Amino acid sequence: MVIPVPEAESNIAYYESIYPGEFKMPKQLIHIQPFSLDAEQPDYDLDSEDEVFVSKLKKRMDISPLQFEEMIDRLEKGSGQQPVSLQEAKLLLKEDDELIREVYEYWIKKRKNCRGPSLIPAVKQEKRDGSSTNDPYVAFRRRTEKMQTRKNRKNDEASYEKMLKLRRDLSRAVTILEMIKRREKSKRELLHLTLEIMEKR
User: Fold this and answer.
1) Which end of the chain, N or C, is surrounded by fewer C-beta atoms within 10 Å?
2) Nearest to 103 by CA among 64, 139, 142, 130
């Protein structure tokens, strides 16, 4: 058997037209965008059912697929075993009340039809009490024996759990600050309305 090898040509007439000799070194070869919290993408992804709903909703309201994903992501992360109420959803979201009501009703209906505890897929891990040892769908299992770590590195399980707790606390703090911002905005609008009423009287 013979392996086919392409023939090499040394004299190509159209080389100059493909590779002109007018190259200039650019001032910057690699450009990196600075990292920011605003560029963080939501964990929730649209499915075909969501696309149909967003396309129908766009005819009446101003909403983008990314904005819809962010709204569903906030509702999911703000809920535990029980979904948040409509009033709590208005505190979590920044959009108009009518848009919030439409998305909230769609989210509640989809969450009831969902078999899992959340619309955001998550990796199924072993429970702390060890009751899920026989579950074949558990992705990560705890070691039966204590993991041997180096003494000069702080990569033990306790520090990892502290970092996870710190991340949860920071996300809750951000949510509380957004709620405070919405409350102060409502207070300011109420104050302006009261001043207008007094001036008209």
Assistant:
1) N
2) 64
Determine contact, residues 68/58, Cβ cutoff 8 Å: no
pLDDT tens for the 201 residues of the chain, in order: 889 998 877 766 777 777 777 778 777 777 666 665 555 778 888 888 888 888 888 888 888 888 888 888 888 888 777 778 888 888 888 788 888 888 888 888 888 887 767 777 776 666 666 565 666 767 666 666 565 655 545 566 778 888 889 999 999 999 999 999 999 999 999 999 999 999 998
HEC string of 77-130 equals HHCCCCCCCHHHHHHHCCCCHHHHHHHHHHHHHHHHHCCCCCCCCCCCECCCCC
